[in-house]
Specification:
- It contains eleven helices and eleven strands.
- The protein is of the alpha+beta class.
- The strands form five sheets. Strands 10-9-11 form a three-stranded mixed beta sheet. A two-stranded antiparallel sheet has the order 1-2.
- Bound molecules: heme C (HEC) (2 copies).
């Protein structure tokens, strides 16, 4: 698609004002009992940009929404089961499992997903959850790092995220994380690629509008890792960023780059208040 065509497409959708976010009746309730926060007042730092934040679930069609409402229908749950097996399996030269040190994940990992990416004092860096998992693999297990953003680590991330399902996202953006957060914010608003589009052009200015066949969401990350029907497997947040940047016809950063960690922190902070979905379903 040429630059003018897509820009035209965006201009065209932008004038289709009045489109309203379609909240499914009753909202997202999982297995008929676990109520998820899919709509929340925007965090203070979004003042002037957004008043309400929405989970990407809100923008999916009824069939996709329904898959996430029942764990038997959610294909992502198979990965969660696999992740549990990985959690308990000894690995590396230590021959220790994650469970040997962390015990029952439902206790030790409850709430962990809500605060990542997070500053790690000892390492002097902001770490995504995947970076932390790999740090434990290499430093504590004596095992090889998982390939960042690929199946195994996405599976482990799904298992850990599930222990925070329903809890509101709450990443810290101040203190030692502030500089990384600022870097991520700059990236979010920078127009890139041949199409000269920023993340904000699509996910802030045009959410709830259609771009080609896609109902644009706010591009939130509270649902990650997501099971994508298109790929029939899990995708990490950074994996999704790679796809979105390519769509602007820009050179993308490496999936495990510090730039994408900064962007992941910033985007996560835009979703503070929305429930972690553990493993969500998207098209
Ligand atoms: C030899 C012990 C050991 C093993 C094995 C181990 N870890 Fe850790 N892990 C730690 C320590 C120590 C920390 C840092 C201090 C803390 O948060 O308790 C940590 C921190 C973490 C954190 C961050 C928790 C937070 O609150 O921010 C996660 C996530 C994590 N580990 C996941 C894993 C996973 C997944 C595995 C298996 C692949 C694993 N760990 C294996 C010792 C271990
Ligand atoms: C040309 C428009 C466009 C741009 C620019 C764009 N995206 Fe997207 N993005 C989409 C579309 C279309 C989807 C799929 C439908 C949806 O969830 O919005 C999507 C999905 C996402 C999702 C998944 C949301 C979910 O709930 O599963 C995230 C996260 C995301 N984008 C982040 C970003 C970030 C960060 C940037 C900037 C680097 C960006 N996007 C730039 C069009 C865009």
């Amino acid at each position: 698609m040429t630059k003018t065509v897509l820009k035209g497409a965006i201009a065209a959708v932008a004038v289709l004002a009045g489109a309203q976010v379609a909240l499914a009746e009753g909202g997202l309730v999982i297995n008929g009992e676990l109520e998820m926060i899919t709509e929340a007042p925007a965090a203070d730092h979004l003042k002037g940009s957004l008043t309400t934040v929405y989970s990407g679930w809100v923008f999916r069609d009824v069939d996709t929404q329904a898959m996430q409402m029942d764990d038997f229908d959610n294909p992502g749950m198979l990965y969660v089961d696999q992740g549990e097996g990985m959690w308990n399996a000894p690995a590396g030269t230590s021959e220790k499992s994650c469970a040997d040190c962390h015990g029952d994940a439902s206790e030790s990992m409850a709430g962990v997903r809500t605060v990542y990416p997070k500053w790690n004092e000892a390492a002097g860096e902001v770490r995504s959850l995947q970076m932390q998992i790999n740090a434990c693999r290499t430093e504590n297990q004596g095992a090889d790092a998982f390939k960042y953003g690929k199946d195994e680590i996405n599976t482990m991330e799904a298992y850990i995220s599930m222990q925070s399902r329903g809890m509101p996202m709450n990443v810290a953006i101040d203190g030692p994380a502030a500089a990384t957060w600022e870097q991520g914010k700059e990236m979010y608003y920078a127009r890139t690629g041949q199409l000269e589009l920023s993340c904000a052009n699509c996910h802030e200015d045009n959410y709830d509008n259609y771009i080609r066949a896609d109902h644009l969401s706010q591009g939130q990350t509270n649902g990650f890792p997501v099971y994508r029907l298109k790929d029939t497997k899990l995708t990490s947040a950074a994996g999704r960023f790679v796809g979105c940047v390519r769509d602007t016809r820009a050179e993308t950063y490496k999936i495990d780059s510090s730039e994408f960690v900064a962007l992941e922190l910033y985007v996560a902070s835009r979703g503070n208040g929305l429930s972690v979905e553990g493993v969500s379903v998207r098209n």
